[in-house]
Amino acid sequence: MGRSKSDEMILSYKDVVLRQSDLLILSGPYFLNDRVLEFYFSHLLSLYPSDDVLLLPPSSAFWIGSCLDKESLNPFVEPLNLVSKKLVLFPINDNMDVTLAEGGSHWSLLAFEREANVFIHHDSNRALNAWHAQRLYDSVVGLMGTVSKPRYVEYSRSPQQVNGYDCGLFVCAIARAIGCWYVSRGSRDSDEDGLWLSAVMEQVTPSSVAELRTEILGLITSLIAAERSA
Which of 110, 134, 166, 205 is the most exposed, fewest CB within 10 Å of its CB? Predict the structure, then answer.
């Protein structure tokens, strides 16, 4: 039996394969799936290429947070070279079922910054994912190669969504703001703690997040057109 039209592959971008259904998600007021998030994280890395920065795919972050056997994490985490990264972004999902692909109903973002030795959780829906972020932190904190244990901060002033479906876009927007802060931190003022919090507050708003949905859709469409004309 052939694939349905919504399941047709439309773009291969780095290690991400997008399908027609992903365009439909971006065309309407829908919850972002793993593929769209992974695509945008890959795009951000192309904008801010650095061996110091790592944006984990949702599937990798989910596996790290869900793994019950911590010893089995080492072979998986070692290729990520976390001990050398200065900035690491982990997308957090509230899926509790490791057998369910692309489950869950809420996204948030956990960010690690080595110089400040801190993990900061940004949640656009009143810390709904706090437990899940803390679980991933507990799994990975001992693997970062820091001299002292990094702090965990639940940032209560993270920009908040005004609907029930834009959480994934908030993750994308916050990740973009953090990435932009990181590459320009030498020429722009940071917070008193030398972090990105004020940049996130200034750049991530409900209106800018709504525009980002259209921006990502346009980016994918332009990449499809370029691939077809090549």
Answer: 205
- What are the φ and ψ backbone dihedral angles of 121, each rounded to 5 degrees? -100, 125
**Exposed (0-12), middle (13-18) or buried (19+): which is 72, by Cβ within 10 Å?**
exposed
Whether 36 contacts 93, CB under 8 Å: no
Helix (H) or strand (E) holding 11: strand 9-13
| DSSP code of residue 21 | H
β-strand partners of 122: 109
Q: Phi and psi at residue 119, in whole multiples of 5°?
A: -105, 130
Q: Concatenated DSSP letters for 172-205?
A: HHHHHHHHHHHHHTTTS---TTSSSHHHHHHH--
- CA distances for 131 relative to 43, 60, 65, angstroms: 28, 18, 11
Burial class (CB in 10 A: 0-12, 13-18, 19+), 129: buried
Please state, in angstroms and rounded to a whole number, the distance separating the CA atoms of residues 100 and 85.
30
Per-residue tens of pLDDT for the chain, all 230 residues: 445 666 899 999 999 999 999 999 999 899 999 999 999 999 999 998 889 999 999 999 999 999 878 778 888 899 999 999 999 999 999 998 877 767 899 999 999 999 999 999 999 999 999 999 999 999 999 999 999 999 999 999 999 999 999 999 999 999 999 999 998 875 555 555 679 999 999 999 999 999 999 999 999 999 999 988 87
Check: CB of residue 190 under 8 Å from CB of residue 181: yes
